[in-house]
């Protein structure tokens, strides 16, 4: 009655030879007894389980776990080799920081944790139209149906986001993010107000008093943290609200909201807008699971979809299915390809760490080889290969854990920078309440796992390689000289050098950009100009009017803008105010066609000036002079007028000599028509009516010139950029601007307000940051390559001590010895440099068609620099090699 | 063959004590992994993992508390012999010390063993 074969085979591999018969005999005896007592099937099952249990127990006895002494030795090693500790610690720390930041960011995007009680039970609803393959917004009918029929989700609520001005008694007006939310939304969040009460179902009734709950920061900043705030009234846009509650700090549910007002469904205003209620969410009922909720909704969705074809609800298409998803995913579901791409960045970061760890492995390999005699001694005293590898693994794990500590510290600081950068780049005022700058406990665990990966690559790898020659140690070759650097290490060094050579020109380029940006001059005193975005808040009568009666709205917008500009101009301290693209901001570049002679363009597609839109009076307000022709007039802004103004750079770069005023040009289509599509109608000819002195258009160091043309902005255009010249205290002007907007129209919002100087400085800071970061990365790469080369050369020299000594004694020429010692490492460096230069050249050719001479020089220069520094790194070990006394060499070899 | 004889026996873990008691009860001709596992299971009503008994016996052998010898070939074991366990005098002493300690401690607790001191 043989036991299962597979189990016997596994045990045969794991059991020690002297106990193999005992293990197999016990198994067979127990199996036979079971077959008699319990039948064939049960016996087979129980014996398999027992066999696996035995296999696990045997495997555990075979694996040598590191002891406390191994870790103590690891700490001692850090002190004994300070060079290696610093170089490897910094490089690994940087790579672990990259890994930790990537993990944290990807987790916060793909698998966010809401800081709410039982947050994983909060769900969102999504409607998917199969016919149009698009998401549709739920209606009040959907909300009511789900509320009344769905059993597995409770407190089903909805919210819509709006931006409105909060105008307090002191006349201050600032735009805040408001959630029009069902009262039950607070039950979903399960957070009690800090003061007063949350919204209640009664507040949602049509005709109920207007009430609002405000966020902690609004209470602190706008109401001075007054305890008697409850019951006070404040204006939100055009309407007055009574404040009934203050939420605790950091509460921004559902996204990044600062005030909550009741969502009223079924009001006439809503019916007109197609009855949409925004985003619907709820909480899984007690005992319900996500899959049960999905199944219940699927059944109900199929039923409602059939009913949707009824004529009472025209415009609501059939074939719409509803699904329930985790809250954040329902709100912004990323496509699978994006999710996979984001997840794979973790893998890329881990591979980067492996590359750095491979470099460190080069150093630890050299260190391990230098301890060959000590390890041979331990082996002779009975230590198994596993024991020695475990010791070396534990030593490197200590280094990895120290690096993980350094990496987490770097990551914590870098996360704050990252948020600043994204704030600047995307103009983000407030983040969703679940996004945080700190590192989560999961990221700390992940960093520890990365430390273990480091120990595997840089500790166990070299240890296995060195101990591979243990058999020879036992055979009496314990004096060393048995280990060799292999192809993997050669590959690592070549890759490293190639990366350094390829990256250096990029760093130089970014550095040049940064330097140029620092010396940018906008053509005006930038700190005296404030810029802000003027818009009309969403969901107010004014924006509603724009949708329903566009002509009337145009007239109203135009009047409002004019009145606002007058109000601002009349404010004390303001010298002038205008609308238009602020200098140094982003304006597009367009290819143009010139009517008549023009200077040759750099690109084959023609000249490509920057195109800004400005209001009449813009140039005067910004202190630019009209040097020929005239400024825009209000008539130029009307439909059908074709006037443009160009700057002096435009005349110099595009038109050349001769009068510019009266010349004609037109914009080329943005993109060529697709194959089979008719060619787009040509843009109309535009006439140059004036030439203006240069104001910097784009603060973009990559642009070679400032050639630009200005087009008149439409009088009714909103939102629009506002520029105000305030020669005195610019920063104190922000509240005055907001108050002016509130006086003209409570629904006008002015934000964000900053000086032109600040904007350019932000841009410069952004570039400087990238410069420092890339410089740091390349510096680290270079440091690692050099340490690797140093390790290789010292290793080669120490292996050949005896041979070099004898050859020196026999009168070998020093230059020849020098060539021989340098040959192998320098071959690797030259190969790496050639590969890096070739890769960079290929990338440049692929992206721009050719390599400019200065860039080719830069690439060659960086390759030469890397080679020169590598030769210097080899200098110390080579000097040592040539100074070896023949007698000393012979003595050490004995 | 015993590898190491400690000058003074280390305190026994509970499962080690059970294994030694079972081996003493079964005697040098009947005590081996399978019978010891069955004996503990029958007497204590516990679910005993044979792998646990195997590794405990190895540990006890390393400590010098038991020694082992091979018995005769057995057909139910595919012709393989049993590895019989002999409890050494140090092992017996360790069992005595452990049981004495338990009795001493338990004896002071009223109502636990039926008597008090």
Give a short summary of the structure.
The complex is a heterodimer of chains A (894) and B (117). Chain A is an alpha+beta fold and 894 residues long.
Going by helix content, strand content and strand pairing, the class of chain A is alpha+beta
> What is the strand tally of chain B?
2
Task: State the secondary-structure class of chain B.
Answer: alpha+beta
In the sheet with the most strands of chain B, the strands line up as: 1-2
Number of strands of chain A: 22
Characterize the structure shown:
The complex is a heterodimer of chains A (894) and B (117). Chain A is of the alpha+beta class. Helices cover 53% and strands 15% of the residues of chain A. Chain A contains 27 helices and 22 strands. In chain A, the strands form three sheets. In chain A, strands 14, 15, 16, 17, 18, 19 and 20 form a seven-stranded mixed sheet that branches. In chain A, strand 7 (233-236) and strand 8 (239-246) form a beta hairpin. The longest helix of chain A is centred in the last third of the chain and has 44 residues, at 756-799. Chain A is globular and about 100 Å long. Mean pLDDT of chain A is 83; it is low at 310-316 and 477-481. Chain B has 117 residues and is of the alpha+beta class. Chain B is built from four helices and two strands; from the N terminus they run αααββα. Chain B has helices at residues 14-26, 33-44, 50-63, 89-107; strands spanning 66-74, 80-87. In chain B, a hairpin with a 5-residue loop joins strand 1 and strand 2 (80-87). In chain B, helix 1 crosses helix 2. The longest helix of chain B is centred in the last third of the chain and has 19 residues, at 89-107. Chains A and B meet through helix 2 and helix 3 of A and helix 3 and strand 2 of B.
């Amino acid at each position: 009655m043989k036991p299962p074969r597979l189990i016997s085979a596994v045990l045969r591999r794991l059991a020690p030879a002297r106990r193999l018969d005992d293990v197999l005999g016990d198994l067979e005896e127990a199996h036979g007894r079971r077959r008699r007592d319990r039948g064939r099937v049960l016996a087979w099952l129980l014996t398999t389980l027992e066999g696996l249990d035995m296999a696990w127990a045997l495997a555990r006895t075979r694996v040598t776990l590191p002891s406390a002494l191994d870790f103590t030795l690891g700490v001692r090693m850090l002190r004994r080799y300070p060079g290696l500790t610093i170089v490897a610690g910094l490089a690994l720390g940087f790579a672990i920081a990259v890994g930790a930041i990537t993990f944290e960011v990807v987790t916060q995007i793909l698998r966010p944790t809401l800081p709410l009680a039982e947050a994983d039970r909060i769900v969102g609803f999504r409607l998917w139209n199969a016919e149009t393959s698009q998401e549709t917004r739920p209606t009040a009918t959907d909300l009511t149906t789900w509320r009344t029929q769905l059993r597995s989700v409770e407190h089903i609520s909805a919210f819509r986001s709006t931006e409105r001005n909060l105008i307090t008694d002191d006349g201050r007006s600032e735009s805040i993010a408001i959630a029009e939310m069902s009262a039950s939304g607070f039950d979903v969040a399960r957070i009690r107000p800090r003061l007063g009460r949350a919204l209640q179902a009664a507040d949602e009734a049509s005709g109920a008093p207007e009430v609002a709950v405000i966020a902690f920061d609004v209470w602190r900043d706008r109401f001075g943290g007054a305890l008697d705030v409850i019951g006070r009234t404040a204006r939100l846009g055009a309407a007055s609200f009574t404040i009934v509650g203050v939420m605790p700090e950091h509460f921004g549910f559902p996204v990044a909201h600062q005030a909550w007002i009741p969502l009223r469904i079924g009001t006439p205003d809503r019916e007109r807008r197609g009855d949409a209620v925004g985003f619907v969410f709820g909480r899984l009922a007690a005992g319900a699971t996500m899959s049960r909720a999905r199944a219940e909704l699927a059944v109900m969705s199929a039923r409602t979809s059939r009913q949707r074809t009824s004529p009472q609800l025209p415009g609501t298409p059939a074939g719409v299915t509803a699904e329930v998803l985790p809250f954040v995913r329902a709100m912004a579901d990323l496509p699978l390809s994006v999710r996979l791409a984001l997840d794979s960045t973790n893998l890329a970061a881990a591979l980067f760490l492996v590359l750095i760890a491979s470099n460190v492995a080069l150093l630890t390999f050299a260190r391990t080889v230098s301890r060959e005699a000590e390890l041979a001694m331990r082996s002779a005293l009975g230590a198994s290969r596993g024991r020695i590898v475990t010791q070396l693994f534990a030593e490197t794990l200590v280094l990895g854990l120290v690096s993980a500590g350094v990496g987490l510290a770097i990551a914590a600081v870098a996360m704050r920078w990252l948020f600043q950068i994204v704030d600047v780049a995307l103009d983000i005022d407030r983040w969703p309440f679940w996004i945080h700058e700190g590192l989560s406990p999961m990221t700390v665990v992940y960093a520890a796992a990365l430390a273990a990966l480091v120990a595997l690559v840089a500790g166990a790898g070299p240890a296995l390689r060195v101990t591979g020659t243990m058999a020879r140690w036992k055979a009496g070759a314990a004096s060393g000289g048995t280990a060799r650097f292999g192809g993997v290490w050669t590959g690592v060094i070549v890759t490293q050098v190639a990366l350094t050579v390829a990256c250096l020109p990029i760093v130089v380029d970014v550095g040049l950009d940064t330097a140029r940006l620092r010396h940018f001059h906008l053509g005006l005193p930038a700190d005296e100009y404030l810029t802000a975005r003027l818009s009309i808040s969403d969901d107010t009568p004014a924006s509603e009017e724009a949708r329903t009666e566009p002509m009337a709205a145009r007239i109203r917008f135009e009047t409002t803008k004019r009145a606002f500009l007058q109000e601002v101009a009349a404010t004390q301290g303001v010298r002038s105010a205008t609308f238009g693209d602020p200098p140094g901001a982003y304006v597009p570049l367009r290819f143009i066609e010139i009517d008549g002679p023009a200077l040759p363009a750099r690109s084959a597609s023609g000249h490509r000036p920057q195109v800004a839109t400005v209001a009449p009076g813009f140039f005067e307000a910004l202190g630019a002079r009209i040097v020929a022709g005239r400024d825009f007039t209000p008539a130029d802004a009307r439909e059908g007028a074709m006037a443009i103004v160009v700057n002096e750079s435009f005349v110099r770069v595009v038109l050349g000599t001769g009068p510019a005023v009266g010349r004609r040009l037109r914009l080329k289509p943005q993109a060529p028509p697709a194959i089979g599509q008719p060619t787009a109608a040509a843009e109309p000819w535009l006439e140059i009516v004036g030439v203006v002195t240069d104001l910097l258009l784009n603060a973009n160091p990559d642009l070679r010139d400032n050639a630009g043309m200005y087009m008149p902005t439409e009088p009714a255009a909103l939102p629009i950029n506002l520029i105000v010249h305030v020669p005195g205290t610019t920063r104190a002007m922000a509240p005055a601007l907001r108050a002016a907007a509130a006086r003209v129209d409570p629904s006008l919002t002015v934000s964000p307000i900053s000086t032109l100087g600040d904007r350019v400085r932000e841009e410069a800071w952004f570039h400087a940051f990238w410069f420092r970061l890339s410089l740091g990365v390349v510096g680290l790469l270079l440091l690692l390559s050099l340490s690797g080369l140093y390790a290789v050369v010292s290793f080669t020299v120490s292996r050949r001590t005896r041979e070099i000594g004898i050859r020196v004694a026999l009168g070998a020429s020093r230059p020849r010895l020098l060539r021989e010692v340098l040959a192998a490492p320098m071959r690797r460096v030259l190969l790496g440099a050639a590969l890096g230069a070739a890769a960079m050249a290929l990338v440049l050719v692929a992206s721009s068609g050719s390599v400019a001479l200065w860039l080719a020089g830069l690439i060659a220069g960086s390759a030469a620099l890397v080679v020169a520094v590598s030769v210097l790194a080899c200098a110390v070990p080579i000097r040592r090699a040539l100074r070896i006394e023949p007698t000393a060499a012979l003595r050490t070899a004995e | 063959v015993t590898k190491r004889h400690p000058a003074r026996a280390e305190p026994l873990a509970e499962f080690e004590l059970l294994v030694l008691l079972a081996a003493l009860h079964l005697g040098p001709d009947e005590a081996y992994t399978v019978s010891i596992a069955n004996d503990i299971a029958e007497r204590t009503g516990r679910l005993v993992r044979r792998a646990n008994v195997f590794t405990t016996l190895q540990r006890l052998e390393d400590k010098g508390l038991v020694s082992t010898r091979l018995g005769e070939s057995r057909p139910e074991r595919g012709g393989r012999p049993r590895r019989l366990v002999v409890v050494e005098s140090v092992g017996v002493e360790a069992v005595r010390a452990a049981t004495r300690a338990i009795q001493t401690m338990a004896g002071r607790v009223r109502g636990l063993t039926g008597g008090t001191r």
